[in-house]
Design a protein that fits this description.
The structure is a homodimer.
Chain A (H helix, E strand, L loop, with lengths): L7 H8 L3 H9 L19 H15 L4 H13 L4 H39 L8
Helix pairs in contact in A: 4-5
Chain A binds a DNA duplex through helix 2.
Chain lengths: 129, 129
Amino acid sequence: MSSQGWSIAEAADALGLSVDTLRYYERDGLLLRPVPRGGSGHRRYEEVDLRWVELVTRLRSTGMPIRDVRRYADLVRAGAGNEADRLDVLRNHRDQVLRQLAEVTTHLAAIETKIATYEDRLAPREKTA
Amino acid sequence: MSSQGWSIAEAADALGLSVDTLRYYERDGLLLRPVPRGGSGHRRYEEVDLRWVELVTRLRSTGMPIRDVRRYADLVRAGAGNEADRLDVLRNHRDQVLRQLAEVTTHLAAIETKIATYEDRLAPREKTA
DNA sequence: GGTTGACCTGGAGCGCGCTCCAGGTTGTTG
DNA sequence: CAACAACCTGGAGCGCGCTCCAGGTCAACC
């Protein structure tokens, strides 16, 4: 058990990411701050770090590119005063996700039709009436 | 106007893909057959080619990797007898897409909550009752 | 206090899905 | 028939998002 915070392995585990990915996100400016270090130079993730990475994960896994996540992190890091800009980023992303969902849903319907076709073709002992 | 079929540029335009992508798909074995050529060696896409690429597009844009599309194309190309295998591929993909949709939807909800937070913070002249 | 495993950094490597290029042939239009 | 656009092939290049590696330090347990 650690004095405080989580090691990078513990954080990775909790977040469902790899330790490499965590270090990569930090290097690439996706985090709000450099993750604090213990005396040894090893990272000690705190609650606030984990929660931020959680948000990053949500943005990433809804398809936001790394570079946009970084721009958003830049805004938040800049501090109070640019909330309208942040809102813009989030709204644009939401709209993008909605468009994406709609498109996938449409394509999915077509694929399910195709599945139904094969199912019909492959159901020899289906009752017909 | 062409004697018959569509040039690669026309096909690309109709399908919303680039000509490079169309050639790439063909090279990579995603199509059911080599696209037929006119006397000059230029491709002439026929209805059946366009319809197949349309399906490929649906699979691709719902996230099926190129290699899986190729495996599916291989099955269809092999002719009658493997319908159960094709069905398997499609069903697995559908399930994958559904999982993906569920995940994105969940993340989206969290993002919308965050948007709402910013909206509240930025709405000074909101009526309170 | 020695060994073993976690962690560190900087940088290279990789799989994916295109996209672009060179160098050449063909089709079309004025 | 000249000029210019569209097409061809084989192969290189690229942006993305990690992932892995080397070479070294550190910690934690027996």
